[in-house]
Amino acid sequence: MGDLGNSTVDFHPKKPGMDKGDHEGDFGVTVEELSSLMELRGPEALQKIQENYTDTETLCHRLKTSPADGLSDNPADLEKRRQVFGMNFIPPKKPKTFLQLVWEALQDVTLIILEIAAIISLGLSFYQPPGGDSEACGNVSSGAEDEGEAEAGWIEGAAILLSVLCVVLVTAFNDWSKEKQFRGLQSRIEQEQRFAVVRNGTVIQIPVAEIVVGDIAQIKYGDLLPADGVLIQGNDLKIDESSLTGESDHVRKSIAKDPMLLSGTHVMEGSGKMVVTAVGVNSQTGIIFTLLGAGEMEEEKKDCKKDTKCLMKQDEAVAMEMQPLKSAEGGEVEEKEKKKASVPKKEKSVLQGKLTKLAVQIGKAGLVMSAITVIILMLYFVIETFVIQGMTWLTECTPIYVQYFVKFFIIGVTVLVVAVPEGLPLAVTISLAYSVKKMMKDNNLVRHLDACETMGNATAICSDKTGTLTTNRMTVVQIYIGDQLFREIPRPDQINPKIVELITSAIAVNCAYTSKIMAADKEGGLPKQVGNKTECALLGLVLDLKQEYQAVREQIPEEKLYKVYTFNSVRKSMSTVIQMPDGSFRLYSKGASEILLKKCSFVLGRDGEARAFRPRDKDEMVKKVIEPMACNGLRTICIAYRELPADPMPDWDNETDIVSNLICITVVGIEDPVRAEVPEAIRKCQRAGITVRMVTGDNINTARAIAAKCGIIHPGDDFLCMEGKEFNRRIRNEKGEIEQELIDKVWPKLRVLARSSPTDKHTLVKGIIDSTILEQRQVVAVTGDGTNDGPALKKADVGFAMGIAGTDVAKEASDIILTDDNFSSIVKAVMWGRNVYDSISKFLQFQLTVNVVAVIVAFTGACITQDSPLKAVQMLWVNLIMDTFASLALATEPPTEALLLRKPYGRNNPLISRTMMKNILGHAVFQLIIIFTLLFVGEKIFDIDSGRNAPLHSPPSEHYTIIFNTFVLMQLFNEINARKIHGERNVFDGIFSNPIFCSIVLGTFAIQIVIVQFGGKPFSCSPLNVEQWLWCLFVGMGELIWGQVIASVPTHQLKCLKEAGHGPDPDEIMDEDLAEDEDEIDHAERELRRGQILWFRGLNRIQTQMEVVSTFKRSGSFQGAVRRRSSVLSQLHDVTNNSTPSHVVLSTANATGAPGSESLHSVNGTS
After folding, report:
1. Better-predicted residue by pLDDT, 284 or 344
2. Checking CA distances to 1026, which of 200, 224, 992, 1159 falls within 20 to 30 Å?
3. How large is the greatest C-alpha to C-alpha distance in the chain, in angstroms?
4. What is its EC number (predicted)?
């Protein structure tokens, strides 16, 4: 019928007044008409539908679609619809081109300073003082002044420029590949987003982007609507429209009162069908995005529009979108608003807080050191030349003096470049990006990058039972029916036929029509369960009783259901009313047995007749039937029915009266077996210092039985299992308010929370997070699949949503999506999280050793010999190997099971432990001794000319080349030492499992050979012979032996060692909150909500606008790429970045609809 229905419509003669439809490709309605219709709500919308189309049937007819069979799958028709009404997707903003990224990388302050210095140095090197009278300028320019040399002066400047170019290209390439990766992730989430539509009379799942106007879409509890539409059939439908209107109350939708459904809103209850009337840019959400300056916001619209992809939560999107409108009136308002919008923020991730603090300290130290270096050099030169030698300043010598000053300046900048670990943001980004890519293989789809690092610190996991710990493949295994308890499913002839018939219709009608059992995918496999798994178990029971549920559903299609009370977490039951042929009604009900049995007054006996069901019988049934089932870990479901007269007409809104005096048909026990790998995964968690708690809506006995099977509770342990009611009673005071102290008495021992409501789950998570009874703040991960789990998922430090069973709402609120719904994937996430943390610590240990050594060498060398033993270009090369390559090498170490053998680090533990501090200082001492020995007595040891006190532009000396070479080789071998941070002996352990590391070390070594042998003047190197090379290598290898010596020194003996890189102190966090409303830049820096400004803060304090590493802007912004709520935000941010501390806005991590969304009214109004 579908094809016919769709094709015959084409031959209808056009009605008058429809001529304007020509350009709309023969559809009886235009895009404009539809979008003006979708702007109305409630009665106005109904009136408009009646005026223009008489009813929704006609609207479907004009859209050439059939309410029952949907569109035909005719590609030409679908294509035509896309051309006329648009596609369900909004074109993304173009990614930055490589050149733009290069330009951004050039904005780095340190690099700019180096470029300027290099250019001045270049210009001056071409200047020769007039006349041969260079003597007059003192001994400054004496030395080898032959032609070749004078001309070689330009090389240093050119070499610095070249190395700057290298750094810029590397940075830009990193950003580019990161952007690409991120878009890849986006599109992957996008493709996974599917929606159920009816085509040719069958329900199929299609990607959201393929939905067209005229499609008949099936909507159900938990969906996020992908397009605008008009309801054509609904049961008890309630929608959360807060993302569009800011109203937090759920809106009841029905054909009679308000049939308008809008894209981007959530279905909170019920089910139904809608005809799609607007997609993509023409939908309500789409229009808002176009209003708000399509430029920046388009991408975000696409992000938010396509459901789960919305990396930024929908509500925030709205809060965020509001800003651009205000900026027209004035910046201040906007700034304030942004801050307001960002109030409910997630705390900074643990790692990020520690890094911020550490980075600032290092930045300050580096700046001070470089300033002192420059001042000392200049003073020394001035005193030496003009005081001791009594020279006068001659005008023609000025350029030569300036050249010296430039040289000192370059040395100072190099000290700074080496002191600041720009590689840190890079290491963090690489480490996170690498982990996220690999976690994909472990079934973790990470939506917010920093979630994977937070997971490494997790101390508690609150897990759902169904589907996470269990397989979510439910089957009925026991049944109590007609006064008999069957331990396995009985044959149909063992039960009264009347009861069999009743049970068949009760299950077929009172289960969502979207739940069904399909044939197995492969021969001999289990049949496929589609839809709600508990309902599938009941439908399976019907099939086991050799009955057909599909036949009943064909007799009573969904449109004929008189009234449906859909399942929700408050009712814990579902009821459906049908009208019988004689006009009377019958209500079927199913739900949690202990809840439904309370509403039963009768029970069916063996003969199929109802008899009274007294309280005494109920108690007996609970003891004899329900408790034994529950203790075997079965969920018990009661199925009941009731006849209602047609006259007087029942009051359908009075639900308590309608669903009472029921007749109990049967109680079934449903088994949901524990996943085979879960007990092992839970054991690993417990060994790793993570407490697993189970939070479930199930009966307490069932929950306890499953928890014991999983290993969450062990017989003989001291633990609590309680129901939601009891939990609430214990945590509330007389006034009924929740008290933290009372929660603190409960949660440490609580292991199972049964019959819990979503609010209980949220209360528990919040209570654990806010608790102060342990010295470490707890880091809580939560798993959830239902719409009602949203608040708990948002509140948790890391929210895991189920990829298969999860609703769109849950996915939206989560940080990580488990693509296989399996608890053991969470353990993988913990492993990866700890690995990220360790990788960054390894990198820090390596990097800081180099920093300490390079800074001290450059500083003392410059002060004692007026010239840094390590030249600017050499320093840049050292910086490159240390920062970029080392971050690649150390950040890509794969995780090992050993990571799960230790307790979590905790929030307050320092980044740099005592052991690491011992390693850093120990190695620095070794390297400094070697380098100073070489610097001051090296010429005697190797019997070569001394390189000290060489004049300007003199050729590179072997002496300094040996120092440079030894320095680099020591770093290379120390990179191997840095692979272990907990004082392990075997630093080569597992080195071959990381090919990246091996290739980088070997590659660096090869380039070093080339630089030394053929680098010549630009790198200030003169070639070394084999013997000298062997000595350099020998000293480098000494690092490994020295590493063993350091490992032998027990850390606990070294009380003097301080740890570094603690998290921010609680009072600092308090200050940050107080500072929220003040607009001074300092407080803005304080908030540092965006990674970008990480380094700037410290330098700001010294009132210097040396924004040292804006590399952070890109390669690090932890929250930038990393949290990058959506790539858009970063673009939005780049726009404001220059003028305002925009990081304030982007921090919202869990804004509820309220703060910003209210203002949406005004948008709608003003638009």
Report:
1. 284
2. 992
3. 127
4. 7.2.2.10
Q: Which one-letter DSSP state was computed for residue 767?
A: H
Going by C-beta distance under 8 Å and a sequence separation of 6 or more, which residues neighbour residue 618? 597, 598, 600
266-278 and 216-220 beta bridge pairing: antiparallel
- The first and second tokens of residue 220, run together, are 């159900």
Q: What is the 3-state secondary structure (H, E, C) of 8-22?
A: HHHHCCCCCCCHHHH
Distances (CA, A) of 866 to 144, 376, 380, 1022: 18, 9, 8, 20
Whether the pLDDT of residue 848 is over 80: the answer is yes
Note the pLDDT of residue 391. 76
- Asked if residue 214 lies in contact with residue 276, where contact means CB atoms within 8 angstroms, the answer is yes
Write out the two tokens for 388: 């001791």
Taking the CB of residue 770, how many other CB atoms lie within 10 A of it?
A: 13
Q: Strands, DSSP E only, in 862-936?
A: none
Alpha-carbon span 317 to 594, nearest angstrom: 42
| pLDDT per residue as tens digits for the range 242-287 | 777 777 778 888 888 888 898 888 888 888 889 999 888 888 877 7
How many Å apart are CA 911 and CA 456, to the nearest integer?
13
Between the alpha carbon of residue 718 and those of residues 187, 237, 474, 706, 1102, the distances in Å are 48, 45, 31, 18, 55
> 11 Cβ partners below 8 Å, 6+ apart?
none
Q: How far apart are CA 667 and CA 647, in angstroms?
A: 31
CB contact at 8 A, 1087 and 90? no
Q: Is residue 236 classed exposed, middle or buried when 0-12, 13-18 and 19+ CB atoms within 10 A define those classes?
A: buried
User: Before 648, cis peptide (omega within 30)?
Assistant: yes
Kindly give the interhelix angle for 958-977 and 823-865, rounded to the nearest 10 degrees.
Answer: 160
* Helices vs. strands in the chain: H and E counts, helices first: 46, 26
CB atoms within 10 A of CB 73: 15
Could you give the angle at which helices 914-942 and 823-865 cross, rounded to 10 degrees?
Answer: 40
What number is the average pLDDT over the span 758-781?
88
- Name the one residue in this structure whose structure tokens are 């997630």: 346
Of 948, 969, 970, 955, whose CA–CA distance to 869 is shortest? 948
Placement of tokens 């529009």 in the chain: 305
- Of 272, 273, 319, 254, the C-alpha closest to 292 is 319
- Pairing mode, if any, of strands 816-818 and 444-446? antiparallel
Q: Rounded to 5 degrees, what are φ and ψ at 855?
A: -65, -45
- Burial label for 564, CB within 10 Å (0-12, 13-18, 19+), is buried
Least confident of 258-262, 364-368, 476-480: 364-368
- Angstrom distance (rounded) from CA 367 to CA 354: 20
What is the C-alpha to C-alpha distance for residues 274 and 209, in angstroms, rounded to an integer? 17
pTM of the predicted structure, to 2 decimals: 0.69
CA 183 to chain centre: 14
Burial, 148: exposed, middle or buried (Cβ in 10 Å; 0-12, 13-18, 19+)?
exposed
Give the 3-state secondary structure of residue 993: helix
Report the residue count for the chain: 1167
d(CA 597, CA 885) in angstroms, rounded, equals 68
10 Å CB burial of residue 1137 (0-12, 13-18, 19+) is middle
Identify any residues that bridge with 516 across adjacent strands, giving them in sequence order. 530
Q: Of 694, 683, 688, 679, which is closest to residue 724 (Cα–Cα)? A: 694
pLDDT(640) > 80: yes
**Axis-axis angle for helices 1127-1136, 154-192 (nearest 10):** 140
Question: Which residues 6+ apart lie within 8 Å of 901 measured at CB?
Answer: 687, 688
Question: Active site includes 464?
Answer: yes
- Which one of the listed residues 108, 175, 307, 464 is annotated catalytic? 464
Check residue 577 and give its pLDDT: 92
- Output phi, psi for 63, to 5 deg: -85, 5
Lowest mean pLDDT among 337-351, 577-591, 912-926, 1150-1164: 1150-1164
Contact between residue 672 and residue 601 where contact means Cβ atoms under 8 Å apart: no
